[in-house]
Amino acid sequence: MMPAARESLLDAAYAALARRPWATVRMVDVAAAAGVSRQTLYNEFGSKEGLARALVRREADGYLAGVERALGSHSEARERLTATAEWMALAARENELVRAMLTGCWSERLPAPALSAVPSSSPVPAQRRADGPLPSPGDFVQIVRDRAVAVLVGAGRDGSGRDGSGRDGGELARSCELVVRLALSCVAAPPGEGGVAELVRGVLHRQPV
Fold first, then answer.
1. Alpha-carbon distance 31 to 15, whole Å?
2. CA gap 52, 188 in Å, rounded
3. 8-64 pLDDT per residue, tens
4. How far is Cα 152 from Cα 163, in angstroms, rounded to an integer?
5. Which of 34, 37, 77, 179 could bond to 9 as cystine, CB 3.0-4.6 Å?
């Protein structure tokens, strides 16, 4: 199957989930919405559980791609981190699968695939990846923190683990993790006036970034 067709099936599954609980989403309806046969859907994902894993994997990848864009959206370190925190909160507010992945709180209406890898004999490379481990809330903290550090240090361009101002990578990592965890706390308890940006800027004013 062409990647575009796989994306169409995932789009159809996501749209169906927006309308009804996952338990009532039917594979035949997903296939029909994507314009393919039910057998084609099963060939691609193997089962409804496989479709759920692929959907969660795609939304996780989209969230992390948004993090990358946010980290590259400014030249100044504090603004990069502020933009990243804002993206994290926005993505979780607009996408309940992302919110569940970040918080670990899966409502009954969502698919909730096991985060551990499952046995996979799929001939489809994208499905074999989806059948691998899915990121936990802790994994997301580590991934975003480490990516932020790499961007802010310039991927260790001087080989010292410090950025151009001589700041230690450990200090920077602690500051980045603090921002990530603050952003995640805003997912669970949205901030008031001033929003995420004001909270993050207040924290970074006192942090070595």
1. 12
2. 24
3. 999 999 999 999 999 999 999 999 999 999 999 999 999 999 999 999 999 999 999
4. 7
5. 34
Give the predicted TM-score (pTM) of the model.
Answer: 0.87
Q: Residue 143 class from Cβ within 10 Å (0-12 exposed, 13-18 middle, 19+ buried)? A: middle
How far apart CA 118 and CA 199 sit, in angstroms, is 40
Residue among 15, 19, 9 at smallest CA distance from 51? 9
Give CA–CA dist 175/144, Å, rounded.
Answer: 12
| Residue 130, number of CB atoms within 10 A of its CB | 27
Coil, helix or strand at residue 79: helix
The per-residue DSSP string of 25-63 comes to: --HHHHHHHHTS-HHHHHHHHSSHHHHHHHHHHHHHHHH
- Alpha carbons 42 and 35: distance in angstroms, whole number: 14
